[in-house]
Amino acid sequence: MRLSIDVRLDYGITGDADVLLQIEAAAMADQTIESESLTLWSDSPIRAVRGEDGIGQRCWSRGHGRFTAEYKAIVAVKRERVQLELYPATPPRMLDGELTPYLMPSRYCPSDRFEGFVAREFGGLEGGPLAAALTEWVYQSLDYRCGSSSGETTALDTFASRSGVCRDYSHLLVSLARAGGIPARCVSAYAPGVDPPDFHAVAELWLAGDWRLIDATKMATCGDIARVCVGRDATDIAFMTVFGQAYLWEQTVKVTPLD
Asked: For the purposes of burial, counting CB atoms within 10 Å of the CB of 165, is it exposed (0-12), middle (13-18) or buried (19 or more)?
């Protein structure tokens, strides 16, 4: 699938502040950047740095007063369908070292707090069958409700409230997977059909020797998701981090399928 991406960020910066952006689609084997442009209205030059795990890139800039960024791209996604039930389990002791952080609790994904729940509710399942069961449980158990969470909401809060937005679905699935011994990470992405239109958050689980994209909201499938970046949780995948104070003027994210 080919996707047209059109993003505009318009923020006010109080005083001066460094700004870290992650809004560019990542060039990867399963998604090709056919064209793209990033424009920032800033007096400071843009400085690009590698994204987490070498996926995508972050861009540093400096904001003062009005800070505006526009990103346009066409991305071709070519990815095999995820069939979770078919993937065998890999014992944690057999995983490569770079996967270890994705088995551990993190700020928004306190996976250690879910170990008892996963063992009790999903005992006997492992690997792909466990991942499929956890994904379906998150989808069935949560209500997608805008405004029901904040930037401080953790997976434990979402588990208690049974509601959230894509970020919360991702955090909860990642936490449950880690609690079940499956490496899991959060993914910032673009996808068509997201309601309301915005940056999208999904999960990736390490199964059968590769990362498998999963959208627990079921608003997107793995074949129409364009990754931006990956990380332990929302701390690593935020589309914009302001090292100071900022306020929103306008933000639009449009993702349109071209095929």
From this structure: buried
Q: Exposure pattern of 226-252 as b/e (b: 16+ CB <10 Å)?
A: bbbbbbbbbebbbbbebeeebeeeeee
Place of tokens 């049974």: 162
> In which element (H, E) is residue 235 found?
helix 234-237
Q: What is the pLDDT of residues 231-245, one digit of tens each?
A: 999 999 999 999 999
Distance CA 96, CA 93 (A): 8
Nearest one of 148, 152, 184, 190 to 165, comparing CA atoms = 148
**Per-residue pLDDT tens over the stretch 126-145:** 999 999 999 999 999 999 99
Tokens 């999903």 belong to which residue? Answer: 122
The answer to whether 32 and 76 have CB atoms below 8 angstroms apart is yes
Per-residue exposure over 75-92, b if at least 16 CB sit within 10 Å of its own CB, e if not = bebebeebebeebebbee
For residue 253, which of 198, 201, 202, 190 has the smallest C-alpha distance? 198
* Angle at which helices 166-179 and 127-141 cross, to 10°: 140
pLDDT at residue 259, rounded to an integer: 77
The closest alpha carbon to 204, from 73, 59, 26, belongs to 26
